[in-house]
Design goal:
mainly beta, two-stranded antiparallel sheet, two-stranded antiparallel ribbon, 0% helix, R-tyr_protein_phosphatases, repeat
Length: 83
């Protein structure tokens, strides 16, 4: 499956947010995604339905006119649920 935000028609400074489904397994999960952006991209982990979450990855600035691949291992062994 995939999720996509096309921000090509939006003004600088506007934000978009994508949320994965809530998970409740205490385990390590692999999150893979591709990005193509001239701005900034941040990945957070939200635990137990709390606020925005803990930053686990970010990139900013121009990375050229190409797609980049990212693979993150997210380990959460203590919360009841996370997103």
């Amino acid at each position: 499956s995939y999720m996509m935000v096309n921000s090509s028609q939006h003004a600088a400074g506007q934000r978009a947010q994508l949320l994965l489904q809530t998970l409740s397994e205490n385990d390590t999960h692999c999150v893979q995604f591709s990005y193509f952006l001239p701005g900034a991209l941040r990945v957070y982990v939200r635990v137990n339905g709390g606020p925005l979450g803990i930053p686990v990855w970010n990139v900013s600035g121009s990375r050229g006119r190409q797609w980049h691949q990212v693979e993150l291992a997210v380990s959460t062994f203590w919360p009841n649920e996370y997103q």
